[in-house]
Design goal:
about 90% helix
Length: about 100
């Protein structure tokens, strides 16, 4: 479960990087779309779409982080249970349980 938690945190980090770094480099300018594209508002639509994608990636990263934290708590619980079970078995083996 710990490995799965680490994988989910790694996925979150990749989503954050994509939204904050990779998409930040994606830029469209009026010169890129020509006069008709400029008049049609292509640059504005493109910029809005990128902003929407960045917003979605931020929300997705937040959800992945929450999921990873929940997995981590579950792993802590199972570790605690394992320790308690081991102690009970050891006590039974010694005849004190």
């Amino acid at each position: 479960m710990r490995a799965a938690t680490d994988d989910v945190f790694a996925a979150r980090d990749k989503v954050i990087k994509f939204g904050q770094e990779d998409l930040a480099q994606v830029v469209l300018r009026d010169d890129d779309v020509g006069m008709l594209g400029t008049q049609a508002g292509v640059v504005e639509m493109f910029t809005e779409a990128i902003a929407h994608i960045r917003d979605k990636t931020a929300k997705g990263a937040m959800q992945l982080g929450q999921f990873a934290e929940a997995l981590d708590k579950a792993a802590d619980y199972y570790d605690t249970q394992d320790e308690a079970d081991f102690k009970r078995l050891r006590d039974l083996e010694k005849g004190t349980g």
